[in-house]
Amino acid sequence: MRCAVGCGHVHLGSDTAYGLDAVRGDPSHPVNNGLACGRGIRESADPDGSWLTRPLVRENGELRQTSWSDALARAGDAIADAMADDPDEVAVLGSGQQTNEAAYALGKLARGGIGTRNYDANTTLCMASAVKAYYRAFGSDAPPPTYDDIPEAETHLVWGANPAVAHPVMFRWIRQSADDGDLVVVDPVETKTAAVADDHVAIDPGGDLALAQAVLGHLVETDSVDEAFVSEHTEGFDRVVDELPPVEEAASEAGVTLDEVEKLASLLDAPTLVYWGMGVNQSVRGTATAGALVNLCLASGNLGPGSGPFSLTGQANSMGTRVVSSKGTWPGHRPFEHPDHRRTVAEAWGVPVSRLPDDNGPGPVGMFESSPSVVWTVATNPLAGFPDATAAREVLEDSFLVVQDAFRSETVELADVVLPAATWGEAEGTTMNMERTVSRVRPATETPPGVRQDLDIIADVAARVAPGLLPRPSVSPSELFDEFAALTEGTDADCSGLSYTRLDGERAVRWPAPDPKSEGGYRYYDDAEGSDAPEWSFPTASGKAQFSALSGSSLPEPADESYPLTLTTGREADGYNTGVRTRSDTPDQPVARAHPDTIDAHRDAVADPEGDRRTTVVSRRASVPVTLDPDDAVPPGLVWLSIHHPMTNRLTSPAVDPQSNEPNFKQCAVRLEHPETTASTDLLAAEVSD
Q: CA–CA distance from 357 to each of 85, 217, 336 (Å)?
């Protein structure tokens, strides 16, 4: 498991030493049937980065090795002292890199033991807008379609995503299906996915919502709406239509032609899967745009097998954190604000209801803005992964920082306590992929003596700050699985019919699975044998799907005279998250892709436009030295930086979507400055501060 496609891997442990001898795709796994991508193999078999093998504590400004008892005592004392003052003084940040069992235990401790609102996971930085859109439309989270629908679709509309790079195995299925249909990409950049597509609609950065509105408007004007489906199974359509901008105006705002709008609208006549990714989600308009894409599916009748809205998730267990970790909902997607669900969880955990927060908190960016006195990060690297990373550094420097991770990172370098944890191939548990399939993961090798399982570390901290909440280590993953699965019984994300025994036998099972024999398929849809028509049932107040009428926020930083260019960020083919495990080829300074015309127009800011293309990218928050790479795939006026480089997020904006709290990573205003100019400015600033 290396990304949210959820491919099963076979890990072969070394016979003579610690580690893995070989990694390959698992031919018996029902998700990938033996397929695997190069990145997934390499990162498991031979990851880059520096392994953490001993607990560390900070003394006299330096990290030094210590015993587990000392490290855990320091972490526990700091958390307990902060809790005594105010539970919200403790901020806990989890990850889509944990197993379900570890994510559940961390959430149980954060919410039920510590009682903090300041708990979340790095998955909110990438998927929260899609989650909010699903809830608004269907009353429940997660995509309705599954991988089984990919070969049934005739049109594959990829919007703000690059699965050729991010999800190679899944993209293979998409391309195979598109051989007899259409593959169309909407993206400002000609990505690797766009390069092999039948058509590429190159919108302006931030123009996604306007384009989706233009396409819906065209469907309305040409009487192409599936009136029967809309009338029988949805609500809110008329309000959305009343608030649509004129098609020509929306197309102009998106930076596309009316012909391109017409082409996109015509594609929806056939069974269509609409995929989207971070280009949509990571925006102050993320929830509104994701909702607008769902609107297109509803209006065109593209809901049901072989069609529908399909958000593409990144991390291996992003879905699991949404179902079990208590970050955005209680286990099983139980809503925070509902008193009955809070009571159910409190009784199951044996804690007072009053200890459980009645909302899910301010999100990752918001929790840092509250300047907590203790921060505990688990399998994540906020110093590189948060927007406006310089501000994140200031928060971490001022807090007592506990870092639980398998690899050394920028965040580790600031830590007061470092707790070395096991990683994939060393841990036991389960994960959930983006189509809701739960799979088992098992250790293929022992861990070094200084490394512990995530579950045992969390349980040991719990024993010090909330005695009796979790079993004392060592903790049985299967017992934790049974506990959270039972808490999902009767919910929209019912996993109560799953067990390790069942997963060992079937390899992987898709939820909802409310009993030991059932497995989820396409959601909200029942086409029972013998029925005249399929039946639809949505977990909304009315039982019908809801059109989204969100208008979206204004973009926080449009280009202007002082910052005339737009920065966007994206994935590299072999990069992963903040790059800690995939950085062997990462230069000291980022490589910025830009159109040759952009470089020529700003040649005064480049050391030597014909040779030495060093320059400095400057935003309202920071300046970062880069080397420019001329690239026709990037439109003029845009600067592209890798999300994996630790310097990139010094530049990005901390503005968040008002619905989802997801940051606006994909767009901010920047300019280029000559390296000598920036160096002189930095030197002057340092002299003034001295």
A: 16, 42, 8
Determine the pLDDT at residue 532.
67
**Virtual torsion, Cα 431, 432, 433, 436, nearest 10 deg:** 160
Structural domain boundaries in the chain:
1-46, 51-122+316-475, 126-311, 565-689
The pLDDT of residue 680 is 54
CA distance 317 to 357: 24
Give the pair of three-digit tokens for residue 551. Answer: 């208008």
What's the rounded Cα separation, in Å, for the pair 652 and 649?
A: 5
At residue 684, the pLDDT reads 41
Single-letter code of the amino acid located at 69: S
Q: Which of 625, 618, 609 is nearest to 675 (CA)?
A: 625
Ramachandran quadrant class, 428 (left: phi over 0; alpha: psi -120 to 50; beta: rest): beta
Q: What is the pLDDT of residue 683?
A: 43
The interaxial angle of helices 208-221 and 247-254, nearest 10 deg, is 150
Could you give the 3-state DSSP secondary structure of residue 56? strand
- The whole-model pTM stands at 0.94
Query: Phi and psi (nearest 5°) for 564?
Result: -85, -5
Angle, vertex CA 248, rays to CA 243 and CA 253, nearest 5: 80
Residue with tokens 């009571």, as numbered in its chain:
343
Q: Give the model's pLDDT for residue 682.
A: 56
- Check residue 573 and report its DSSP letter: T
- Residues whose CB is less than 8 angstroms from the CB of residue 311 and which lie 6 or more positions away in sequence, other chains included: 127, 130, 134, 143, 275, 276, 277, 281, 290, 434
* Burial annotation 173-208 (CB, 10 A radius, 16+ → b, else e): bbbebbeebbbbbbbbbbbbbbeebeebbbbbbbbb
Q: Pick the closest to residue 571 from 184, 37, 213 (CA basis).
A: 37
Distances (CA, A) of 624 to 55, 568, 616, 685: 33, 14, 5, 15
Q: How many whole angstroms from its chain centre is CA 197?
A: 25
CATH of domain 126-311: 3.40.228.10
Report the C-alpha gap between 391 and 655 in whole angstroms: 13
Quote the CA–CA distance of 463 and 451 in Å, as a whole number: 19
CATH topology of domain 51-122+316-475: Rossmann fold (3.40.50)
User: What residue type is assigned to position 316 of the chain?
Assistant: A
Residue 174 makes CB contacts below 8 A (sequence gap 6+) with: 150, 156, 158, 163, 183, 275
Q: What is the mean pLDDT of each run of 10 residues along the chain (690 residues)?
A: 79 70 80 79 71 96 97 98 98 96 98 98 95 97 96 98 93 95 97 97 96 98 97 97 97 98 98 97 97 98 97 92 96 94 97 95 96 97 95 97 96 98 90 96 87 97 98 96 98 97 95 96 81 85 96 91 96 73 69 96 92 95 96 97 93 96 96 82 46
CA dihedral 370, 373, 379, 381 (to 10 degrees): 60
Length of the chain: 690
CB burial of 628-647 (b: ≥16 within 10 Å; e: otherwise) equals beebebbbebbbbbbbbbbb
Contacts of 478 (CB under 8 A, 6+ apart): 499, 500
Instruction: State the number of CA atoms in the 13 A half-sphere of 545 facing the CB.
Output: 32
CATH number of 1-46: 3.30.200.210
**DSSP H or E stretch at residue 575:** none
CATH 2.40.40.20 for domain 565-689, yes or no, is yes
| Alpha carbon of residue 16 to chain centroid | 37
Q: Are 9 and 36 in contact (CB under 8 A)?
A: yes
In whole angstroms, give the CA distance from residue 564 to residue 46: 42
Question: Computed over its alpha carbons, how large is the radius of gyration of the chain?
Answer: 25
Question: What token pair was written down for 144?
Answer: 């309705």
